Structures are given as structure tokens and as C-alpha cells.
Amino acid sequence: MMNLEQTIAPKILVVGQGAREHALLHALSQSPQHPQLLVAPGNAGCETLAILVPIAVTDVPALVDFAVSQGVTFVVVGPEAPLSLGLVDALAEKDIPAFGPSQACATLESSKFFAKQCMGQASVPTAHYAYCQTETEGFTALETIGKPPYVVKEDGLAAGKGVTIASTLEEAKIAIQQAMEKAMPVVIESFLEGVELSLFAICDGVHAVPLPPAQDFKRVGDDDAGLNTGGMGAYSPVYFADEALVSAVQTKVLVPMLKTMAERGTPFHGLLYVGLMVHPHQPETLNVVEFNVRFGDPETQVVLPLLTAENVDVLALLQASASTGALANLFPQWVASGYRPSQLSWFCKSSNQARPSAVTVVMASQGYPEAYPTGNAISLPDLNSLEAGVIIYHAGTQKSAEGALLSAGGRVLSVTALAENLPQARRKAYGAIEAIDFPTGFNRTDIALKACLVE
Description:
Layout: H1 4-7, E1 11-16, H2 19-28, E2 36-41, E3 51-52, H3 60-69, E4 74-77, H4 80-84, H5 87-92, E5 98-99, H6 103-110, H7 112-122, E6 129-132, H8 135-145, E7 150-154, E8 163-166, H9 169-181, E9 186-190, E10 195-204, E11 208-210, E12 215-216, E13 219-221, E14 225-228, E15 233-236, H10 243-263, E16 269-279, E17 282-292, H11 300-309, H12 314-321, H13 327-330, H14 332-336, E18 357-365, E19 390-394, E20 397-399, E21 405-407, E22 411-419, H15 422-434, E23 441-442, H16 449-454
Parallel strand pairs: 1-2, 1-4, 2-3, 4-5
Antiparallel strand pairs: 6-9, 7-8, 7-9, 10-11, 10-16, 12-15, 13-14, 15-18, 16-17, 18-22, 18-23, 19-22, 20-21
Helix pairs in contact: 2-11, 6-7, 7-10, 8-9
């Protein structure tokens, strides 16, 4: 007798409107579960994959009501704002499982101070810091730290842009004053030397499964010049992120953090984004720069294509995170081995492995990350004319009444390419950019360039 449950496609709601959500939809659409996809609110690029639902990501009651009324079986939360507003908790009250942490756990991202407290409880390696609620406290902390550079972090959600690395005392004081004008406390840290690395881990409250490490480019200009942005590009795998480094992150960060969050009565489910400062090939030197509690953008645009290239059912992976201990059913050998990354086929690339590489380059509106125009025309090439492995993810896009594609944000497109090695992926991505007509847009020209020279 046929099992009817197996014949009914799951109805999945993705919450968000950026390139991250477009990438999530693209990965979910390849699941063997053949899900019916909806996205709230989505963007112009998402409409070929999902039904667009005009609900803002911060309208938690409307999102919950929609999920209930439409029989949504699983919700994937993309951005940090709805997580910090308790969307996952509100869905749980209606017995709708979701990918993402509880509101309590989301505080790991919404409060740098809370994250530091939890890292201290878990003995996670991180920079020394001071929490300052007044300008006087901030200036005193700068004196304690001593010589620049200084790291000043606003203690709240800032879309990846609330961090100032001040090269002088005066710059640090200005950053503190600007935060206090917004009634925003700050965390002031000692500066960490090294190379930044992003590592995502899918968590089910007990286990943490690391995904392919990635490296993003936060500064707006080539050679890391200019202001911090939400990210101007990324690549994966990272040449120095070998098994030893991922094992060290597992041992020193992921395992103790999950234990600590469980002990606090708030087990962590969803994605823990670990922002690291490391010295290549020296895993013992790693320090945690920050935690985020959702997929990062633009790293998601390279990590997810690598997973689907390995035939990973991304939907099953996200679904497992919502049930305590369920990841052990997907990866029994890995759990039995004591969480050795070598048991996972996709986590890194070594010299004797033929693994694909991915590069994404962000096309942004002129003026970003400061004031920028919107409503400017974009002309994309016929997707069939692009090289195999090229994907154009939409971020800040919309359609005009006549159906023309227009810019609608700071970061507008993420042009991603998958290839058998990093130089080829980079060449494909920049080749696709040449075919895009976006006169008021710009992009960095050096994404993954240094990594290609090493590889």
C-alpha cells in the first residue's frame, strides 16, 4: 500500500529577501523531497523558484498566521532580525518546525556582550574585551588596551557593519561617540592578528556539523580599502582550512558552545556562524571574532552550491537541525567517530581530493555602503548563454510595472561560479559579470585573487 505521506510534497516557507535567500531557495529546489517553495518577501530573482509572499521579515504575527493558514510544514529563516524577534518561538507555539535558533539563542548575534559572556563560560578562545555603556567607560577602556588598532563593536544588530577597526585613538573615540549617540553600548576588544575565516555549523542542540569553510571580503574596495560592508564576495574551500583546523574549531568552539547553551536551558538549534581569526596552518592560534546565528551573506552563495554539487539534500539537513539529536541519523559514522571532519565528504579540500570550488562576486549600487540610488535598470544575459556552473543570485532587485529588472538595494547581485578549481571558478564569475549590463553598479575586482595565487 502506498504511503500517502511520501507522496505529499513538503510546503516550505523561506523568510528573507536577499541573495542568501535566493541561494537557499536554489538549494532547496534540488531536494529529492520536491518541496513546494514560498518566500516572504523574496526578490525578483526568487520568482522562478518560489511563490512570492508580500510579508515583511519583521512582521512575526503575519508570518506565523500565513504559515498556519497555508499549511506550511517547515520554515527556513534567513535574516537575523526575525530570529531576534522570536519568530522560531512563535512558530513552535503553532507546532511548525523551523530552521533557526530560539530568541534566547539569537542573542548570541544581537548582543556582542552576551556572546562574550557565553564564550567565557565555554572557555572559547577570543579577544580580551571591555563592555562599555557610557562614553567615559569607553575612553577608559581604550587606555587600558593601550596601543592601536582598536576594535569597537556596537552591541546590537548592525547587518554586519557595526564594527570599527580604528587605526588611531581619535578614530576609536569617534566610533564610541557615534554608538552612544544611538544609545548603543559597545564592546571594545584588543586587535587580533591573522586571517579571517567563516565556518558555518548546522546544530541540533547536541551535534554541530561543520560545512565547508569560506572566506569573505568585507571592505568595499580592492585590496581591502574603504568602509566595511555586508560583504563584497567570498570563496570556498579555503586553502588553509584543513582537517586540523576544522577539528580545532569543533573541539574548542562548537562542542563547548553547544554544551554551554544547553546548560543555560537554551539548546542551540539552527546555524551557528563562527567568525574566526586564524594563522594559516596553525589551528592552535584560532580565536573567535564573532558569532552569527544564521547563514552569512555572501558566504552562503558559495557554500550551498558546494553542498548540492556533492548531492547533499540541503532540506533534510536543515530539517534535522530542528529536532534534538536528529543530525546523528544523517551522519551516524561521523558521530560514532567522535565528530572527525574527515568523516564528512565536503568540509575541506586537500591535495589528494578533486573537489569543486566556488567564487561569488557582489555587484552593488554606486555609493554603497553609504547612500545609493535605486530603481536603476539592469540587463542580465540569457542564462543559457553563461558557462556551466554560473549562477546569478538576486539580492536588491525588483521588477517594474512593465517587467523590467531594477536595482532595489545596496548589494544587488551575487554572481557565483562553480568549477573544478578556484582559478577556473574565479574566471567564470568575472566572465559572467562582463555580460551583465548594470551601468550604475560596481564590484571588487580582486575577490579570491590572492587565494588563486596560493592554489
